[in-house]
Design goal:
This protein has helices at residues 9-30, 54-72, 77-98, 110-132, 136-164, 169-192, 197-216, 218-222, 229-253. It is an all-alpha fold and 254 residues long.
């Protein structure tokens, strides 16, 4: 698409907030505030533990796709991901934090539920916006790849931290080795897509640090015990080293 068709910067400053408001309104109207347990069973609910309905979820996806398409038609795929996908992702996190999950043995895994939903929203918006801009390959490289890589880093980092929080130094070593290997794999994938080392390290470590912050939010809100800070530091450091090693290995091979 011709860049001349893209809106000017002043127009974009008006367009982006308006689109973000529409995306937020769609989520608040079509999806319940708390998607976990303690939601009364309603007619049409998919399960006994969620107020989500198939038509509400489908209509919400259609609204987000339409907004992403509209912004993407102007060649603003990055703005679409931030405004159309980012705002619902933040509201989804707020909905998870609004109520403490039931102590069913899996309550501590609530960050992974938010993460999977946020990545799905952001990735879907990126695909639709890139398709509307008729430049999907470039969008995949510039937006979809980092979204998926960040999601993979955050999810695996959360799981590796749970390993490292076990008692004894062996758990720390196992967690560090797993994080090093995962960081190297993600770094290799980012390098293959044209990313530089510094940006790649910032992406993976930032994603792990974000999920650590989200996980720590349960402490002041619900009075839970604080997560193992040492285990998180080991995981973050190992991801940084593992991601950077993808470029070190390349220099060694060449």
């Amino acid at each position: 698409m011709n860049d001349a068709a893209a809106p000017s910067r002043p127009a974009l400053t008006v367009l982006a907030p308006g689109v973000a408001v529409l995306a937020a309104a769609a989520q608040l109207l079509l999806l319940p505030w708390d998607p976990r347990g303690n939601v009364p069973v309603r007619p049409g609910s998919d399960t006994l533990t969620t107020g989500y309905t198939w038509w509400g979820t489908a209509l919400f996806a259609v609204v987000l796709a339409a907004l992403a398409w509209a912004v993407g038609r102007w060649g603003r795929t990055g703005a679409a991901v931030v405004a159309v996908g980012g705002v619902p992702a933040v509201l989804l996190l707020a909905s998870f934090l609004a109520h403490e999950p039931d102590p069913d043995g899996f309550a501590g895994l609530w960050p992974t539920s938010w993460l999977s939903g946020a990545v799905l929203i952001l990735a879907g918006v990126a695909v639709v916006a890139g398709w509307a801009h008729a430049d999907l390959p470039r969008t995949v490289r510039s937006l979809l790849v980092p979204v998926l890589m960040a999601g993979a880093a955050a999810l695996s980092g959360f799981l590796f931290e749970s390993v490292g929080s076990g008692e004894g130094w062996i758990a720390r070593v196992v967690s560090a080795v797993l994080a090093l290997a995962a960081g190297h794999g993600l770094g290799w994938a980012l390098r293959a897509n044209g990313w530089h080392a510094s940006r790649s390290v910032a992406l993976t470590t930032g994603a792990v640090a974000l999920i650590a912050a989200v996980n720590s939010a349960s402490v002041p809100l619900w009075g839970w015990s604080a997560p193992d800070a040492a285990a998180w530091l080991v995981t973050i450091a190992a991801y940084a080293a593992g991601t950077a090693s993808a470029w070190a290995w390349r220099r060694t091979r060449t």
